[in-house]
Fold:
Amino acid sequence: MGTGTGTGTNVEGAVTAVSSNGEYSFTKPNRESITLLAGLGVEGDVHAGVTVKHRSRVAQDPTQPNLRQVHLIHEELFTEVAEQGYEVVPGALGENITTRGIDLLGLPTGTLLRIGDEAVLEVTGLRNPCVQIDGYQDGLLKQVVFRDEDGALVRKAGIMTVVLTGGPVRPGDAIKAELPTGPHRPLERV
Structure:
C-alpha cells in the first residue's frame, strides 16, 4: 500500500474463530460468538476496559487509555509458522478474533473494521509480542517478532483495536476494512 494517500478502498475478509477468557491466561478458548462492547472490548474478557488491562501496561501507568481492547490475528500466520514446525490454532496466541483473507498487518492506523451486521472496530496498532509466546511453544517468539535484512523490527502477532460500535461477532462473519482518508500511517506497537 505504500505511504500514499488513502483511497477509501474496501478490503474484505472473514472471521474464522472468536475467543475470550475471563481469567488471565495466555491462550483464550474459542467461543460460538463474542459480544463487543463500545469503548470497552469483548464482554467478559479480562482485557476489556476503558483503561489498560495488560499487566505490563498497568504496572507502567494504570490510567492509560486501553488501545488494546480487541486483538486480531490473521489465520495465514498459523500456516506460515507451521512451515517452521510450530502448531498454532485460533485463540492460542491470546487473540479475540482470528481472520482470513484480509491483510491486517498492512492496514494503516485508524482503519475501521466492520464485522458482521453491527460491530465496528478502529485499528490502533500492532501487538507487541512478549516472551509468553515462547512459553506456549519454545522458539515461536522469533517467528512473530524479528529484524528484517535492513535491521527494521517486524511484528507479525496481529493488531490491536478499540470498539467504536458494539455487537455480536461469530465465525463466518464478513469483515470489511475502510481505510482512512489522508496519508497512510503505518501501524506501530501499542
